[in-house]
Amino acid sequence: MANGELVFNAAGCGSCHAIDGDDRILAGGMDFLIGRVGTLYAPNITAHPTAGIGNWSRADFLNAVLRGVSPEGETYLGAAFPLPAYARMNPEDAVDLQAYLTTLPQSDAPSRDHAVNFLGDAYLSLFSRDQPGLMGHADPQLERG
Known about the structure:
By secondary structure, the protein is mostly helical.
């Protein structure tokens, strides 16, 4: 659990998914206006079984965080998620993050659909979800990230 909390804080999950200024309520909804592309909305990532990610398996969570693929097989908008840093996350850290998220308050607030135009969708789809591996570092802190 401690490692999951560390990853949660290091990844800044609350900066996009939190509501009402409370980094522990990850009901999403924060909007990101991206020029002429449209508006993206952070989803609910609480452990709520229907409105959030509470029914996601470990594989579902790993695919979402590391590959940008939803449990339904749809790809997330590459420019927004997964960020290149998340795509390079160790699977063990991602599993620990998922475990930590289950300890936070749940919300039944539904995630909002993105408001992205056709051109914006095509543009965002150009971003690669495949990230090359990071080079090894002699310093353990740099290696950890």
